[in-house]
Amino acid sequence: MKTYGYIRVSSAEQHEDRQIIAMNEVKVPQDNIFIDKQSGKDFNRPSYQKLMKKLKTGDLLYIKSIDRLGRNYDEILNQWRILTKEKIIDIVVIDMPLLDTRQYKDLIGTLISDIFLQVMSFFAQNEREAINKRQAEGISAAKSRGVKFGRPEKYLPDNFGELVRKWERKQMKIDDVLKLCDNMCRATFYTKRKEYNLLSRKKK
Questions:
Q1: Which run of H or E residues covers position 111?
Q2: What does residue 106 show for φ and ψ, rounded to 5 degrees?
Q3: Which fold has domain 3-141?
């Protein structure tokens, strides 16, 4: 039997320190800890998929809380079934003692833990939906205040037309033109050049 730990944070900016401490406390070997920095909406995560390939019958998997496994109700229940019924491993949810498949092997214990799993999975998905709603409301409110999202627009220099013509006549290299255009990327330059040429033709 081998012991593994699975850790997930929603983005690269978030820290997994608390989860690592929890894994160390239950003595999960460092080499057996798998970490994903990705949303919990599904299970298409690189480290989780590597973990699934490692797990063998009789192994033990620790996760700190059910929402670290995922935040999609149906998929959490399906993965739990795959892990416990197909992989035939034990799972311990550190923050939820009722979700410890080593302890509840009888019918009543299994029924209680299954019900608890469904309840906690529901709350995990509910929280994900609430987070998404708050983000959408925050973005909408910011837009109404005039806040703009995405990359700031590159402003064209006054001599943009002259630079375009010099580049078209091969009098200037594209890299030199881009530098004079506030380090504009090539794709943006080509788009702005097309817009400029269309506008110039219309003026004629």
A1: helix 107-144
A2: -80, 170
A3: Rossmann fold (3.40.50)
CA nearest neighbour of 117 among 57, 87, 74: 74
Q: What is the distance between the alpha carbons of residues 192 and 69, in angstroms, rounded to a whole number?
A: 46
Cα(149)–Cα(141) distance, integer angstroms? 12
Active site residue 10: yes
CATH 3.40.50.1390 domain residues, the chain? 3-141
Per residue of the chain (204 residues), what is the pLDDT tens digit? Answer: 899 999 999 877 788 999 999 999 999 999 999 999 988 778 899 999 999 999 999 999 999 988 888 878 788 888 888 998 899 999 999 988 888 888 866 655 565 567 657 766 665 666 666 666 766 767 677 667 776 655 656 667 888 888 888 998 889 999 998 888 888 888 888 888 888 888 777 665
Contact assessment for residue 162 and residue 180, using Cβ atoms and an 8 Å cutoff: no
The two three-digit tokens of residue 50, written as one number? 């590597």
Q: Which one of 10, 39, 47, 65 is the catalytic residue?
A: 10
**pTM of the prediction?**
0.60
Q: What is the CA radius of gyration of the chain?
A: 27
End-to-end CA distance of the chain: 79
